[in-house]
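Hi R.,

Here's the chain you asked about this morning:
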Amino acid sequence: MRSRQPSGRDLSLLEDISTIITQSRDVRGALERIVEVTSERMDTEVCSLYIYEGRSGLLTLWATTGLDRSSVGRVSMRTDEGLVGYAFQLLEPVMAIDAMAHPRYKYFPETGEERYHSLLAVPVLERREPSAVLVVQTSRRRRFSRGEVRLLRTIAGQVSGIISQARLIESLESKEEERRDYQRQMGEALAELERYQTGDSRPRPAAQRIRLTGMGASPGFAIGRAHRLETAARFEDAPRERRGTAREEVARFRAAVRRAIEQTGRFRERVRETLPEMDAAIFDAHRLMLEDESLLSKVEGAIREGISPEAALGDVVGEYVRQFEGLDDAYLRERALDIKDIGHRILRCLLGISDVPKKAIGRGVVLVASELVLSDLLLIEPGKLKGLVLATGGVTSHASILARSLEIPTVIGCEQLSEESVRPGDQLVVDGNAGIVYVNPPADIVREYERLDREYRAFNRELGALVHLPAETLDGRRVHLHANIGLFSDVHLARQHGAEGIGLYRTELPFLSHRDFLSEAEQVELYARVVDTMEGLPVTIRTLDLGADKYPAYLRVPREENPFLGWRSIRISLEMAEVFKTQLRAILRVSAAAPLRILFPMISSVEEIRRVKELLEEAKEELRGTDTPFDEHLPIGIMVEVPSAVSLSPKLIREVDFFSIGTNDLIQYTLAVDRNNRKVAPLYEPLHPAVLRAINYVARAAFDAGKPVSICGEMAADPMCTLALVGIGLENLSMGPFFVPVIKRLVRAVDFRRAQRLAQQALDLATVKEVKGLLFEGMRDLGVIDVIETYH
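And the predicted structure, written out as tokens:
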């Protein structure tokens, strides 16, 4: 059957809706006009728009024609209620010839909809996730044609572009009272702070001087003097009044925008070369903002009214920032930082400032800032920094990614950070492992960190001699040490520290730092760079392990009471099959020219791995259909990290080519301990007898099947665990690149038969204390106890 082509009437309707969207300055008015025009031109008596509010989890009526208008804003439903909720859940159109007879029908008396029988509901999608539902209804019973369904879907696609603005309005209105409360509180706080702003000599409260806490974003520690990042150009310093004619000042503004666009292109290329995981496409978004006529025309309008370009730009940027910072949607809130970034980029160009002044940052300093925009990062000379402390940011922020790639100890999310708590020139100790910053610490703390620094450097010089030696026990047992990586820059660290391959490539980090799922071509380019840099050494690529504490902003996920037991990892991949197959095809394509293995996370049943294999075969068939080469015998493995997989390991090993034991989650699930919960974190014990027995059971299942098994969790990098793991018989350990020489030294100091005896003794013990005591004495006898003292 031939598909129905859009009629002239359909195209006219779509053009009219497009005009409404582009010309309207009132979002609510635009939505009302859209439903009116849609209802009239589709010959329906009702057209309504329900918008999903993430904070409440409800679909709320925002605009309607045909229903009682007083019900707008008053009628809401859960996503599992009604036919509207049904379309939202299915992500597909829902049609009911007699809606009231449908089992999912829900009646809202406020709307007066009892006189309408037939219904067509179409989800509105933003970044592949539902954000609203567009509905038409008629009083006569009828079946909507395919063409009508397609037309309403097209209209829904057009409407999606202004949903974020609608949410903005709703959010701003709902937060108005909160702002008033905040202003009252700030007035009180400012009165208290005023006495501290008169001079730097006033003593600080002791608690602020001693210790600030945040999150460790890049490991290691640094001691240095605080340098507060000062913006090279500030809007508040700009003159308000225009100096030249309107024409001259508009021309100067346009020239600055052109220079900012050129600079954006240079930034993009720099990021593509140095940090491929970071979404260089963010600069495409920045370019679009710089070319946005709406933003530019607002600035130029203010210039023509007599305001200087700098002040006009500051006013417009400030307005946009306030709007986006007030949003509930985390993805949209992130745009506030982008707006600030491009605003300051144009301002620097207006003022003729092309770079951060050379005197701005001296050598050996700890950079302190409330936040860093991407331009700031790219203009700073990294070699000058000893550490980085930020009040904001997350572990997947651009600042965190860059800091890790450059091995700069970093603490982020330091909420206590203020101009009073840290002043220029203060001595800081930054502990990127523990997420702690000491401000003007006592001498004993400084001495302790200086001692650790000396021992660390001396120990690393000793370990440097081991880089090209094999990890082999005294009696000739070979242990293969691989690296865990998440960034392309980690590959160079893996080679530098002597890793024999990549045992775990966590592919989710690029997805977390991008603004949408990576395309197949983008993934192929990234994976190929990793493989090429390893120069023939084996690489194990793990498919997306999203969820729990690492969802990308563009993936809308309902709030879960316990996300670690919820929608995560392979469960997401199997539900989003097309996204999953895109990644599978990318990995397969790279496998044509490199020794690759593919690893699937959080498998909990035989059914899951069989479904994974079906999708993998589909991906292979699609590549065969285009004559795209790949490794037909690409080895596949699973992460064993949940108790059910441990129990089923003798069955699961028959389905795959290898096992990789993910101890981080295995410990958490085996002991029912959330290690991020401070109340129970001490119960998270890698050397718990139950954990050791689970590892031993899985290893035996793999050995019996004649298939390889490795450890890729943090236990592999823990010297206290090495004797037990090697003694169990594990020949493949994968860890952070930094730890490869440490574990190599320990392996080369032990006799395998002795490690076997120690492991067997440990498996027979009943308590953590007994296990640790046994292994500690074993390491003392081997003369390698300094490994624990330096790195544990």
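Residues 268 and 284 are 8 Å apart (CA to CA).

Let me know if you need anything else.
M.
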